[in-house]
Specification:
disordered C terminus
């Protein structure tokens, strides 16, 4: 088989792979963002209720710590996804295989 034909085939397969990878990353990011947004809204509602009750104010500190843990996890995962996309910048035109 001619090398130019194989290179053309490789190019189209790389493009398809890039589109698929970007789609997965974007879909994961959107799902994660949606879940976290819903969690954040619920946490804010709970926080409002806790702050209104004198009896529950003491429990609020523990709750607040847990809320921060989830916020931190969300930020870490988003950072990993973004770093992965930048590291594997498939659409940059870089030649990974020669």
């Amino acid at each position: 088989m001619d090398i130019d034909i194989l290179k053309a085939k490789r190019k189209s397969l790389r493009a398809a792979f890039t589109v698929y990878c970007n789609g997965i990353s974007n879909a994961l990011y959107k799902q994660l963002q949606d879940k976290f947004s819903r969690l954040e809204t619920t946490q804010e509602e709970i926080s409002d209720l806790l702050l209104r009750s004198d009896e529950l104010k003491n429990a609020y500190q523990e709750y607040f710590s847990k809320t921060e843990e989830y916020r931190d996890k969300f930020c870490q995962i988003c950072s990993i996804l973004e770093a992965s996309q930048e590291k594997n910048n498939f659409g940059s035109g870089r030649n990974y295989f020669r």
